[in-house]
Amino acid sequence: MLNTLDVEAIRKDFPILTRQVHGVPLVYLDSANTSQKPQAVLDALEDYYSQHNANVARAVHTLGSEATTLFEAARDKVAAFINAPRRDEVIFTKNISESLNLLAYSLSNATTTIGAERFRIGPGDNIVVTEMEHHSNLVPWQLLAQRTGAEFRYIPIDADGRLVEAAIEERIDEHTKVVSFVHQSNALGTVNPVARIVARAKAVGALTILDAAQSAPHRPLDVQALGVDFVGFTGHKLYGPTGVGVLWGRYELLAELPPFMGGGEMIETVDMTGTTYALPPHRFEAGTPMIAEAIGLGAAIDYVSAIGMSAIQAHEDELTAYALTALAKVPGLTIIGPSDPVDRGATISFTMKGIHPHDVSQLLDEQGIAVRAGHHCARPVCVRYGISATTRASFGIYTTLGEVDALVAGLARVQEMFG
């Protein structure tokens, strides 16, 4: 039994979980796509817009000061949540995709910036990712390689959905400038060996970037312990609003990087002959930021922190082990990714013999069960396993064993309908 959290009490904090879909109670198993939001987050958004709405860092009136205080308090909450050494290492973006693109384009801009030698990338250099990356951590680096003439490389995955160990040493070499990799795969659930990859990257002097979009909601995230140079994640998967993400970076690196976008707030001085830039984080936050969304993310962090990330991880680890065992007994079902719960997150992709994943998803939806079907913005994973798509069930803080049972029963019903 699950005894690490009072899940039924937690579920009462999420209004949408009382909904019915097609006349039956909602079973929401798509948290890897986006999480549902607790009432505390909804209240924070309503309070900001109804009581404090103003632009930040510009107005000196009362509402402007209140909005700025709330916005910067959210930055403090993020810094504490990830154990950042400094609050000014936390940059707000609109999502993880923007966080990664910010880095890729800033590195590209560094090729023409005086004093940024350590970031210069060109012919003879290489950029390394893994075969299990989300497109958001593939395409920006492919584009950077095209812009700079660097070689684009990847670490392959094996039949069990884990990185090929020998390839870590082989693909990351003395010419590697950037290693960008996912902490927990959104398509496979695999939790990658961060320490192993970072040690190899550091040995050759490469920058390390961690995509934590799928790990930040599910396990403790300590940027100092991880040892990477940059970490990005997104708010809407962490029980917060859409439209807000985070990029954390070591301050000494952020201070040397040129800006990503130009505009208001990211400047120190502007005249018609040139511009000087603000210090981090504001250098990378051009224009009016996502004020309400950042405040909502701060409320989400307060919510999960009060419960405890270690307790959340223990709950989801137990759910995952239970689900892997139950799904393995479904005839014709093949799990795509690690079949054991070790170093594995609460995201399970699978195929069913003779039934297209989209049909599986649609028929489950008719039973009130929400899952995702497709390549999950990680098409190279599907190519690796010779499949067009998978069905994916993903869990969150509010998921119960009963919902896993409902999924298994729903899949049996799908098989009956297909004969």
TrEMBL record:
MF GO annotations: cysteine desulfurase activity
Name the UniProt record assigns to this protein: Cysteine desulfurase
Function: Catalyzes the removal of elemental sulfur and selenium atoms from L-cysteine, L-cystine, L-selenocysteine, and L-selenocystine to produce L-alanine.
Catalytic activity: (sulfur carrier)-H + L-cysteine = (sulfur carrier)-SH + L-alanine
Species assigned in the record: Jatrophihabitans lederbergiae
Cross-referenced InterPro entries: Aminotrans_V_dom, Aminotrans_V_PyrdxlP_BS, Cys_dSase_SufS, Cysteine_dSase, PyrdxlP-dep_Trfase, PyrdxlP-dep_Trfase_major, PyrdxlP-dep_Trfase_small
Cofactor: pyridoxal 5'-phosphate
The family this protein is said to belong to: Belongs to the class-V pyridoxal-phosphate-dependent aminotransferase family. Csd subfamily.
Source species taxonomy: Bacteria, Bacillati, Actinomycetota, Actinomycetes, Jatrophihabitantales
Transferase is among the record's keywords: yes
Keyword annotations from UniProtKB, A to Z: Pyridoxal phosphate, Transferase
EC number(s) stated in the UniProt entry for this protein: 2.8.1.7
Signal peptide: none
Location of the Aminotransferase class V domain: 27-407
Domain of life: Bacteria
